[in-house]
# Entry
Amino acid sequence: MASTDMVKRMLAGSPQALARLITLVERDCPEAPLIMQQVYERAGNAHVVGVTGPPGSGKSTLVDKLTAIARSKGLTVGIVAVDPSSPFTGGAVLGDRIRMRQHYLDKGVFIRSMATKGSQGGLPQAAKRVVRLLDAFHKDIVFVETVGVGQAELEIMDTADTVVVVLVPESGDTIQALKAGITEIADIFVVNKADRPGADLFAADLATTLALAPASPGWMPPILKTEAHKGQGVNELYTALEGHRQHLTQDNHLVLRRRKSRRREFLRGLRDVLMDGLERRMTEDRALAELTRQVEDGSVDPYWAASEALKDDNIFQRLLKGQPE
# Structure
């Protein structure tokens, strides 16, 4: 198969084959499951770093500076930059060349922009597959920069080994609404644009919040202040990334984290397959189509209808087998 040949070329070091494979899995082409199966055993060595935070907090600049440090150490880097979807094309609004100009021609760096495509968690469904492809392509570090931060952003925890939450002093009002979410997400906090008024007070407030929240065993998320555009504090951030990676390799923390992540990924995969099949076939099955019509007409409650459908084993057996009534 063509995809098998592309996988072989990608594993042999072809960035062109990698780009094509990413396109196939991003579009959820029929070959995607086979592609992921073929690369699965080759992945698992990269340090995957999620960088998330409100728009305008300087995430791209931080990733740019961290990439420069990694390259100075001889490490290869993959970057998945998730952008808002264009309302016209559905594609990523910002392009690779705009975001990371100084690294675009560096053969040791592979950059891919992805659109959210309506994802509520800031990550498109295909993002984890793209990360795995970059991992199999022998990238030492993979940065995943997401659209925003909040309760729905918890998906980044299932993608990254280390999650960096980037905030700015002006986020004071925002942080009140995000406290519950970000304390669960972050392994490292960054107060960027720390030269702005209120940065010290903001960092102190964040520290107070963290003191009241349960921390990961053996790890208290540090709060670092940076001025990314000047490069200040970025070396300290890179050191913190290395420190968290070292922490994860002790006492099986990384193994356990990835086990939980794979389990949730499997459950999401089952959910997506079932939902796709259900939506495709619900109009073909007479019993389910009638329930759907009653819900749409308002003659029955949607919750009651769902409960009735779940009680009817025959409906779902037909749906799963692709045999409408």
About this structure: Residues 1-42 form one domain. The chain is about 50% helix and 10% strand. The two ends are 35 Å apart (CA to CA). The chain has a mean pLDDT of 82.
